[in-house]
Design goal:
- It is a single chain.
- This protein is of the alpha/beta class and 394 residues long.
- The protein has two domains: 7-171, Rossmann fold, CATH 3.40.50; 178-380, Rossmann fold, CATH 3.40.50.
- The protein is built from 14 helices and 17 strands.
- The chain has helices spanning 37-41, 43-51, 75-85, 98-105, 129-136, 170-184, 203-209, 220-229, 244-256, 297-307, 329-340, 352-359, 373-380, 386-389, and strands at 16-20, 55-59, 90-91, 112-114, 141-144, 166-168, 190-194, 215-218, 233-234, 260-262, 266-270, 279-282, 285-286, 291-295, 312-316, 345-348, 368-369.
- The chain has a six-stranded parallel beta sheet with strand order 3-4-2-1-5-6.
- Strand 15 (312-316), helix 11 and strand 16 form a beta-alpha-beta unit.
- Helix 8 crosses helix 9 (244-256) and helix 10 (297-307) packs parallel to helix 11.
- The chain is elongated and about 70 Å long.
- It starts with 15 loop residues before the first strand and ends in a 5-residue tail after the last helix.
Length: 394
């Protein structure tokens, strides 16, 4: 278990506290926030700092700007955060410079400031020392609450910790706690549900968890590669043909370690996602001209039959094309089933997995849904994330 200091372990009253948050939220074409989950997830940290009389300086990136980009300013986020906190959040037009320094010097206890998109400065992603020093000079304490950006060694996630005492916020603490549990110390039987498009994204994680897991349940595009490796015909389904040998090796390793791997027994297929005609076929008999877009109803029942005995479940990747009906049914059914189980620790990776669970209406019923897609994957691979590594140990 990773044991890092949190904001509870440090006196913040009257102090300027620089908090790296992950407010990289999806915006529509008009610049409105489509999903504020990441903003809401950091409220416990911000509210604690306000209550304790800190002067809170928030910093985040948004999107992938090349220099200053007016469509990626933090204004809509400051507005939404003000509504959620029920108090004004002051939005500044940059994250360094004289104007920012002057404003921050005059902050009162309980004030909250949101700096401009840190990625407007190319030095951020280069983890430039001078830039990190300028950010650090605004505050007396650094709090990292941006788990979604913890796998990046950037100036605002990693560099600033060289110049300030660095601790975890409550969201970061929660992410470390639940992901550590499912990675290092799961209660058995331990099930891992894997989906998404590619095996290649998840090889390291599968290998890292082979010694701990009891059953892998595999759906989504990555299941096709395993099915084809076993000698099936998958028509035009998404498949990593250069990874067939690897899939066979992973199945062999699992067998040696007595880990069960459950693959789909039937698939929902169509000529293309928009097609009106949808068929269900045995999983290794997809005809030419058709592609698999979801697990079939027999697979759903097979998976449910196994999952009901689980004590710990980690889920990463949707089991079909969840954005499009009727190919969302497999993911929705399994998600609702997992959410209905009592006495089970259910943890889900971020990114598409979080979106799929939200769409199924069960994201709040899981024990924990990570706010980081790439970060949760790297964490589960057993890597040390730079944004966590720099925090003070307890």
């Amino acid at each position: 278990m990773i044991n890092k200091k949190t904001i509870r372990d440090i006196d913040v009253r009257g102090k300027r506290v620089l908090v790296r948050v992950d407010f990289n939220v999806p915006l529509d074409k008009k610049g409105n926030i489509e999903d504020d989950y990441r903003i809401r997830a950091t409220l416990p940290t911000i509210e604690y700092l306000i209550k304790e009389g800190a002067k809170t300086i928030l910093i985040s990136h948004l999107g992938r700007p090349k220099g200053v980009d007016d469509s990626l300013r933090m204004n809509p986020i400051a507005k939404r955060l003000s509504e959620l906190l029920g108090k004004e959040v002051f939005k500044l037009d940059d994250c360094i410079g004289d104007g920012v320094e002057a404003f921050v010097k005059n902050m009162r206890e309980g004030d909250v400031v949101l700096l401009e998109n840190v990625r407007f400065h190319p030095e951020e992603e280069k983890n430039d020392a001078e830039f990190a020093k300028k950010l650090a000079s605004l505050a007396e304490i650094f709090v990292n609450d941006a788990f979604g950006a913890a796998h990046r060694a950037h100036a605002s996630t990693h560099g600033v910790a060289k110049y300030l005492p660095a601790v975890a916020g409550f969201l970061m603490e929660k992410e470390i706690k639940f992901l550590s549990t499912v990675r290092d110390n799961p209660q058995k039987p331990y099930f891992i549900i894997l989906g998404g498009a590619k095996i290649s994204d998840k090889i390291t994680m599968i290998e890292n968890l082979l010694d701990k897991v009891d059953i892998f349940l595999i759906g989504g595009g990555m299941a096709n590669t395993f099915l084809k490796a076993l000698g099936g015909s998958l028509g035009n389904s998404l498949c990593e043909n250069d990874k067939l040998e690897l899939a066979r090796e992973l199945l062999k390793k699992a067998e040696e370690k007595k880990v069960k791997v459950l693959l789909p027994t039937d698939l929902k297929i169509a000529e293309k996602p928009e097609a009106k005609e949808v068929k269900v076929v045995p999983s290794r008999e997809v005809p030419e001209g058709y592609a698999a877009f979801d697990i079939g109803p027999k697979t759903v029942e097979l998976f449910k039959g196994e999952i009901k005995s689980a004590k710990t479940i980690f889920w990463n990747g949707p089991l079909g094309m969840f954005e499009k009906e009727p190919f969302d049914e497999g993911t929705n059914e399994i998600a609702k089933f997992v959410a209905s189980l009592s006495d089970v620790t259910s943890v889900a990776g971020g990114g598409d997995t979080a979106s799929a669970l939200k769409k199924a209406g069960v994201d709040e019923k899981f024990t924990h849904v990570s706010t980081g897609g790439g970060a949760s994957l790297e964490f589960m691979e057993g890597r040390t994330l730079p944004g966590i590594e720099v925090l003070l140990d307890k």
